[in-house]
Hints:
Distance between the termini: 7 Å
Protein name: Acr1 protein
Helix content: 40-55%
Organism: Jannaschia aquimarina
Structural class: alpha/beta
Number of helices: 7
Strand content: 15-25%
Strand order of the largest sheet: 3-2-1-4-5-6
Number of strands: 6
CATH superfamily: NAD(P)-binding Rossmann-like Domain
Family: Belongs to the short-chain dehydrogenases/reductases (SDR) family.
GO molecular function: oxidoreductase activity
Keywords: Oxidoreductase
Shape: globular
Amino acid sequence: MALGAAMDQTYPALVTGASRGLGAAIAKRLAHRFHVVAVARTQGGLEELDDAIQQAGGQATLAPMDVTDAGAMQHLCRSIHDRWGGLAVWAHTAITPPPLTPADMVSEKDMASALKTNVTALARLIPYVSPLLRAAGGGDALFFDDEKPAKFAGPYNATKAAQRALVQAWQAESTADGAPRIHLLRPEPMPTAIRARFHPGEDKSRLATPMQEAERLLEPLGF
């Protein structure tokens, strides 16, 4: 929908990992139509997002929270239920990239951190959010896949593979009427902070911007 179009006020859109990169771009795109609940650890990034959404005529609720905090996520989902009764969209972009390291030098601490954010938090959030999507008549859950170089990215690739398996299982299981529609989307390379860690010195001018990718990925879904 064009900027300034009337928002769907019935149910909001939840974006986890919304403070920068693709998550921020998706939040801005969804704000053309929905009230956006934006979750991220970075307060400053959320405030910048809120400014951009308001300037475009949208509305957002900022939730400066860590997706790995079970209590905070429970409280957030309960608050969404109490205020709106459900969710139209959930876009999950929260991710932790472990340090690049050879497989035989992986730190247990780094691996545990990646598992906590990339796998455990997602496995916890799906049962929290699914009832909210069902309450909205199904709703849409959006996840984003990618591939990193095999060398030195073992922990990242391993946790992304686990994340992919969770999403694909939910996708296969969500076939009944009123079940959420699960989308596993593949963005083109973008000049994000995460990509810069894997491709230092890359010519960023040849990459798609996060907003270009948000528009390309969401337009076929009607957002």
